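Hi R.,

Here's the chain you asked about this morning:
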Amino acid sequence: MDFPSWADRRNRRKILILIVISSMFYARQVCAGEVHVSQMADLTVLFDSSLRMSPGDVGDSYRAVKADLERIFGWQMSLRPTLLLIKESEEFQMMAGNPLIVAFAIPRKNLIVIDHSKMNIHPFSLETTLKHELCHLMLHERLGKAIPPKWFEEGVCQWVSDGIGEIIMDQKRSLLNRATLREAFIGLRELEDHFPNDKDSLLLAYEESKSFVAHIIREYGKEGLLRILKHMEKGEAAEVAVLNALSIPLKKLENEWQHSLRRKMNWFTYLSYHLYEVLFALMGLITIYAFIRIMWKKRVARMEDTEDAEPENKMNT
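And here is the predicted structure, written out as tokens:
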């Protein structure tokens, strides 16, 4: 998650608070001897001394990830980042401010912060998460002042990390599928500077970003995406870069992407994503039906008994 691309004043204050908290963390932990600092030629790693890990292995993972990113983009990265691995999830959440987030990057500080406790939870791993966050740093280093829209940056970073983002997604449901059926997309223009704060909208924003960039690659190839980035390197805004690189206005491309989702989506597909919920609901309806049927049979039986009893009473009279 690239905090500096959140341009509104409220999120700028969050960046400042985050930096202050990070500084306090460094001072408190390092002075207490709880943080191990490993200085390498191309990377600095800070981690809790109780973590069972080898800085050398982290360095090897970093270099492999960096080499892969340089191969994908055709760029050379010169920055020397700092990687801060947080052992306790509560400590990390003080910095991130969102329980869904497992990592974030601060390009202005060349800093990557990762919640190490989440790295063994599928689909996250230290290497894929590091790749996603390092992509943020690389994009900002290369594009300079041409800060990409948040939806574009997050989409690209999810693409290079094999779809892995920096938030915990609900694998049992797709909010994008639901938005497609209801035609309730969040417009890309609304996702230029920041993502929404509420859970469902945040998850949808990440899904949309990933899906839209995947659409670009599917329709124009990886080369089409790289052409957009080359135009942005020249300082062009995203809308201009897309038009010059793909010969299509961004809004039209967005409409075509949404249309492609609608074409693939139908109620059967949607229900297949919610098979367990549908079966559970059907079982509930069957149970209710069976209960009503039993109660009705009992009522009919009582009525028949009453009718049989009335002639006998008349005969006795």
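One quick note: Residues 3-10 have pLDDT under 50 and may be disordered.

Cheers,
M.
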